[in-house]
Amino acid sequence: MFKKKQDKFSLLLTDIAKNIDNTADYFVTYKVKDESTLSEFSNKLKEYETKGDQLVHTIIKELNHAFITPIEREDILQLTNSLDDVLDGMEEFSGMMDTYGIYSSDSYIDQFSGEIRSCAKEIMTTIELLSLNKLKDIQAHAIKIKEHEQNCDTIFRKSLKQLFQNEKDPIKVIQYKELYYILEEIADSCQSVANNLETIIMKNA
C-alpha cells in the first residue's frame, strides 16, 4: 500500500482530486449572466478538464513504466478513470450550456450543483486518506458520496417531472432534459469513485 512517504501515484491522484475540488468550487460559485460570462465559464471548465487529462496521461505513463505499484495497477487505473469522468461531466455541462445559449441556472441545477460540490469535497478527503494509507477512515466518506448521489437521483426525478408538466416550449424541454441528464451522470461518476475506493479498501485493508 501507499507508504508514509507519499509515492508518485498518491501525489498524482491527490493532484487530480484537488483539480476536481477546484473545478467543482468554480462550477458552483461562478455566475453566468450573459453570452460573455457563459463563454468564460465554458472556457475555464475546459482548462480544468485539460489539466485533468494531462494528469491522467501522466499516471498512465507512470503505470506503464512502474515495476511495482502501491496497489494493483487495475485499481489505480479504474480510480483514475472514474475521477476523470467527474471532471469530464462538468466540462460537458458547461459546453452544453454554451451550445444552447443558456445564461442562467434554475433551482434544480442549483440543487444538483450543491450535491456535486459536496461530492467533490468528499472525494478530496478520500484521496488524501488513501495517500496516507488510512483505509479504514475512507469508508465513511465513500458512504457520504453515495448519499449525495442518491439525493441527485431524487432531484433528477423531480426536475424531469416539473419540466414535462410545466414547460410548454419543446426546445427548452429538450435542452433542460439534457442538462439534468448530464448532472445526473456527474453524480453517477462520483458514485463510481466511491465504488472503486471501496474495492481498494476490500483488497488492501
Written description of the protein model:
It holds the Pfam family PhoU_div. Belongs to the UPF0111 family. InterPro entries: PhoU-like_sf, Put_Phosphate_transp_reg, UPF0111_domain. The protein is an all-alpha fold. It has a single domain (8-204), classed as Methane Monooxygenase Hydroxylase, Chain G, domain 1 (Up-down Bundle). The chain is 83% helix and 0% strand. It has six helices and no strands. The protein has helices spanning 8-29, 35-65, 73-100, 107-131, 138-166, 170-204. Helix 5 (138-166) packs antiparallel against helix 6. The protein is globular and about 60 Å long.
Keywords:
single chain; Put_Phosphate_transp_reg; 205 residues; Methane Monooxygenase Hydroxylase, Chain G, domain 1; 83% helix
Write the layout of secondary structure elements.
Elements (H helix, E strand, L loop, with lengths): L7 H22 L5 H31 L7 H28 L6 H25 L6 H29 L3 H35 L1
Helix pairs in contact: 1-2, 1-3, 1-4, 2-3, 3-6, 4-5, 4-6, 5-6
What's this model, at a glance?
Helix content is 83%, strand content 0%. The chain has 205 residues and is mainly alpha-helical.
